[in-house]
Amino acid sequence: MNWLEEVLGSEWKITPAGGATGDAYFATKDEQQLFLKRNSSPFLAVLSAEGIVPKLMWTKRMENGDVITAQHRLIGRELKAVDMHGQHVAELLRKIHRSKELLDMLRRLGKQPLTPNSIIEDIQQAVVFEKIETPEIRDAIDLLIEQLPDVQCNDQVVCHCDVNHNNWLISEDNQLYLIDWDGAMIADPAIDIGILLYWYIDEADWEAWLSAYGLELNLNLRTRIYWYVLLQAITSFLWYHAKNNNKEMNNWVEHISIIINKIKSSSQE
């Protein structure tokens, strides 16, 4: 943490903030509380300006080229799974997906749109490389390929791609934020909508949630939702396969079978 003392001075109390990279810290001095991170994306400044993440206080470039960002440390809590049905979640996700500023910034950073065809190609290559012969995985990929003509979408927006309830923070004054933008992509909004609806909202309530978001649940949207949910399940299986975690792999195979059955039964209605 020497680099932090160089930035802040020794009078600050610094503690690790957790996370996969180990490059995030909390800093406290008197009444001031900051969240510090090394080498955040330049995207952070636009997210802060849009009120989507806690306020960016300052940015500093180090002699070695590292960039340190300091955000206001939020006093509040993560959302619980039961909170995800709330209208404020739908409204913030709609704001994100409709933001021209966010989309322009990701384009300037060189992000290319994620298309269903390119996703399938990547998945197929990973399955071949890992020599995966699980029947459910083959069936899932076949179904995704079969539905490719039905999931093309001209609406390309900024997607968070990890709308897990732990990434939603609500402040003491009821301000909602969505954090951890390292995996953001330009893609079909159904990537975010689908994962959120499938894992957190009863299907009977999808129409009401989507109404708060600003969409109507039609056959095309339902098809895209399940397509991306199935895709995410395969991706999760592959992630645990790479870690040789058989228990989680088996869990995801079960999920994949359930999702395939839902898709097939839905297409027969």
TrEMBL record:
Range of residues in the leader sequence: none
Query: A single Gene Ontology molecular function, please?
Result: transferase activity
Q: Upper taxonomic classification of the species?
A: Bacteria, Bacillati, Bacillota, Bacilli, Bacillales
Enumerate the Pfam families for this protein. APH
This protein's record includes keyword DNA-binding: no
Could you tell me the keywords of this UniProt record?
Answer: Transferase
Q: Does the keyword Transferase apply?
A: yes
Q: What is this protein called?
A: Phosphotransferase family protein
